[in-house]
Amino acid sequence: MLKIKEIFSYNSGSPLLFNHYHFLLLFTIAFGIFTLLNFSKKKLARNAFLFVFSLFFYYKTSGLYFFILLFSTAIDFYLGLAIAKTSKRSWKKVFLSLSLLSNFGLLVFFKYAYYIVDIINYWFGLNWHVINFMHLFSNEIFASNFAINSIFLPVGISFYTFQTLSYSIDVYRGNIPASKSLLDFGFFVSFFPQLVAGPIVRAKDFLPQIQQEYQLSRTQFGKAIYLIIIGLIKKVVISDYISVNFVDRVFEAPELYSGFSNLMAVYGYALQIYADFSGYSDIAIGLAALLGFSLPINFNSPYKALSITDFWRRWHISLSSWLRDYLYISLGGNRKGNFRTYLHLMITMLLGGLWHGAATKFIWWGGFHGLALIIHKLYTQKFKWSQNPKGFYKLYAHVLTFHFVCFCWVYFRSANMDIVKAMGNQIIYQFEGFQIFEIFRAYWKVFALMIFGFITHFIPTTWKQKAQITFNSWPNLAKVMFLFLVVILCFQSVSSENQPFIYFQF
């Protein structure tokens, strides 16, 4: 029996996830209250309730670190007002700089402190240790007992800091007016569907929606339920199963498996991370739609890409567009000549890689993608016909792009460079093709799900659209009942405890 205390308290061992039955219960209750508030036509009460619920949701995922969210929100709200009110360019730059410093300061402290200290110790032969000044302050003032040499990474900090940063930059550029309502701005930053793992939402797209009347047509309802169903299947049925039962095992000790198994694990991880992250995005977009809000698409069949440039137009679209608009263009984009263009591309991808985590492997991952983008740009400039590949070249471009992305995923997933080397050695020198049949027989459920996952990914978009239209034609009760059956299926398919979404760690 679920206790009231379990519902309202934070459990570090079991944070609240979209694929957890606790969340389904809480959201059902919250949606009921939300519906009643909409009937009363009180937008302020409705928005205030969603704001409070969003904070509660974040508390359930990160505990008291939701105060960091409140701090970031308050800082950028008032700095945005200051940027908008002053007419002097110099002061606008000062206030923008304060926003940049506060947000990047939070990221550096919580996300990169250990990494920076390790680099300093390595290069200068020092023995520095990380100190959590917040814990130290709390222990001194409130006589608490926090560990002063431990820094916990708040869930979603990379996402909501980027979100508030884009707001400050847009206000500075004059692209949007500054929000006059702290409630509206707080609601924009903390809106729970996209709070912890995106999509990264722009203020210019979301803030106008807050004051709109609630609308949920039959088609919108069907689309929302459809996305939630697809997201749950991607995450729980496909991603979690192949991860727990195959991919994680191989990446933990690749030398214990044949080269063929290692290669399948690479393909498996490519599917796993896509199904996991796009599944989260689908659920987030669907939940937001039920509440009357539109979130941007975050994935568009990325493995259908015909080039690495095309891949980044399809993968994690909200992040890639953010890096383009606020980093690449700010550096100068393609306005400073070819060399500077390539340099800006490389810097953008290196920092994009580092955004994913404080580890050298992410820099390698970003660097490989940056180099590939430069090579592709050079190639298409020399051979114009390659911009629209056809026939055999189209197939070649697709296969090459997919395998390059998979190669980079090895660096992204591996715990260290030794794992990368071991997997490469196994694939090249220990392939052991004669064991393929036995491996398929041993892991037939995993490979069946992988085949199903890739087939559903590569089927024509028109087929997916027809499937959604057919689902929308069902009675609303049938849609809800089907969602209920999918939820039961997901819980029954769980082979271990609920797996966190991969991008929670970022």
Observed structural traits:
2 domains; 23 helices; 506 residues; mainly alpha
Describe this structure in words.
This protein has 506 residues and is an all-alpha fold. It is built from 23 helices and no strands. The chain is globular, with a radius of gyration of 24 Å.
How many beta-strand segments? 0
* Mean pLDDT over all positions: 89
Major pleated sheet: none
Number of domains: 2
In percent, how much strand structure appears in the residues?
Answer: under 5%
Number of helices: 23
Shape: globular
State the separation between the terminal residues, measured CA to CA: 33 Å
Report Rg. Answer: 24 Å
- SSE order, one letter for each helix or strand: HHHHHHHHHHHHHHHHHHHHHHH
Helical amount among residues, as a percent range? over 70%
Which secondary-structure class do the elements indicate?
Answer: mainly alpha
**Uncertain spans, ≥5 residues at pLDDT below 50?**
none
Give a brief description.
By secondary structure, this protein is mainly α. The chain has 23 helices and no strands. The longest helix is centred in the middle third of the chain and has 35 residues, at 218-252.
Secondary structure layout plus pairing:
Blueprint: H1 4-8, H2 21-39, H3 43-62, H4 66-85, H5 89-111, H6 113-124, H7 133-142, H8 157-173, H9 182-190, H10 192-195, H11 203-210, H12 218-252, H13 259-290, H14 308-314, H15 317-331, H16 338-355, H17 360-382, H18 391-413, H19 417-429, H20 436-442, H21 444-458, H22 461-472, H23 476-493
